[in-house]
């Protein structure tokens, strides 16, 4: 009698960890347990643009004024823009990292949920940081300075999104009143309060907004790569027909643009698998298996069933 074949787990198992569990890991475990045991409610639902689920913004600082990423028939092009900071035009950097991803998801969620282009972003920088689940004091990721820099960059940039012959040209943000740097992040006079999305981006969002679990976004907020992997899986897995094998070459083309140097491929694979493990922890419905040469994607329920929550 033949022995039954071993079942391959959907979630890639973690290697035994040495040393104490970090605060981030504890938060991830807590979020994973909550998402697995409690169905998402309406307030847990977030949205982002479908193309940005396939090709994200830069994850690290970009030298120059242009950035382009392509995956199959989807692509994104980001061009640095100019913003008036009170004393004339100032060239902004290209937005990168976790902060603009969280900010764009938050404003997109509000815009789609309320069908409005005018999005309130709090009465102060501290309040908006709290809305994004970011600390209001401490390290550079949660600092007022980082928020100011990345929001100015996001508001000024020119964004092009393309997919299957259709191109969106424009800026996500039509109007944004810049604020000047100030140690007092609660000074309301320096905070714009409202962000106005462009009509074109808003319409694209209404038509192509992908529902996400906001609890997962907050749990992954410390890693732009983990956020990208989660949103990619959320958009893709429920569209898989049968099973789909993705080789490491295609995954590198989609996600590895930031990795350069002699060991770029090795570094990418190592970091991608760590980010994938985190993303799968907060997406319990996902069925992804590591196989020889790449990843096997299987049909999976989306993290949020938008139709059931409407």
Commentary on this structure:
The protein is α+β, with helices and mostly antiparallel strands and 310 residues long. Residues 1-9 and 185-189 have low confidence and may be disordered. 37% of the residues lie in helices and 20% in strands. It contains eleven helices and 14 strands. Helix 3 (98-114) packs across helix 5 and helix 8 crosses helix 10. The chain has a four-stranded antiparallel sheet. Strands 6-10-9 form a three-stranded antiparallel sheet. 37% of the residues are buried.
Low-confidence stretches: 1-9, 185-189
Number of extended strands: 14
The radius of gyration is: 20 Å
From the spread of the alpha carbons, the general shape counts as globular
Class computed from helices, strands and strand pairing: alpha+beta
Spatially, the strands of the biggest sheet line up as 2-3-7-8
| Number of contiguous helices | 11
In percent terms, what proportion of residues is strand? 15-25%
Mean pLDDT: 82
* Cα distance spanning the termini: 52 Å
Q: Give the fraction of residues assigned to helices.
A: 25-40%
The largest β sheet comes out as: 4 strands, antiparallel
SSE run:
HEHEEEEHEHHEEEEHEHHEHHEEH
């Amino acid at each position: 009698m033949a022995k039954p074949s071993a079942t391959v787990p959907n979630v890639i198992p973690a290697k035994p960890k040495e040393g104490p569990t970090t605060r981030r890991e504890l938060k991830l475990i807590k979020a994973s347990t909550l998402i697995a045991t409690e169905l998402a409610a309406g307030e847990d639902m977030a949205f982002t643009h479908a193309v940005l689920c396939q090709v994200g913004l830069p994850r690290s600082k970009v030298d120059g004024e242009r950035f382009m990423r392509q995956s199959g028939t989807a692509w994104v092009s980001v061009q640095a823009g100019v913003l008036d900071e009170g004393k004339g035009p100032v060239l902004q950097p290209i937005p990168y990292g976790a902060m603009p991803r969280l900010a764009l998801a938050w404003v997109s969620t509000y815009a789609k949920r309320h069908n409005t282009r005018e999005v309130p972003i709090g009465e102060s920088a501290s309040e908006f940081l709290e809305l994004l689940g970011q600390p209001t004091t401490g390290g550079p990721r949660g600092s007022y300075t980082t928020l100011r820099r990345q929001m100015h960059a996001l508001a000024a940039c020119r964004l092009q999104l393309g997919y299957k012959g259709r191109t969106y040209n424009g800026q996500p943000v039509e109007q944004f009143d810049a604020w000047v740097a100030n140690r007092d992040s609660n000074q309301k006079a320096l905070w714009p309060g409202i962000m106005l999305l462009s009509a074109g981006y808003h319409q694209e969002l209404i038509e192509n907004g992908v529902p996400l679990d906001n609890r997962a976004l907050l749990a992954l907020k410390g890693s732009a790569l983990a956020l990208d992997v989660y949103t990619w899986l959320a958009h893709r897995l429920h569209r898989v027909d049968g099973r789909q094998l993705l080789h490491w070459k295609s995954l590198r083309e989609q996600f590895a643009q930031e990795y350069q140097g002699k060991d770029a491929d090795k570094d990418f694979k190592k970091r991608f698998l760590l980010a994938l493990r985190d993303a799968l922890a907060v997406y319990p419905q996902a069925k992804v298996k590591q196989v020889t040469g790449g990843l096997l994607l299987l049909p999976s329920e989306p993290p949020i069933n938008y139709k059931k929550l409407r």
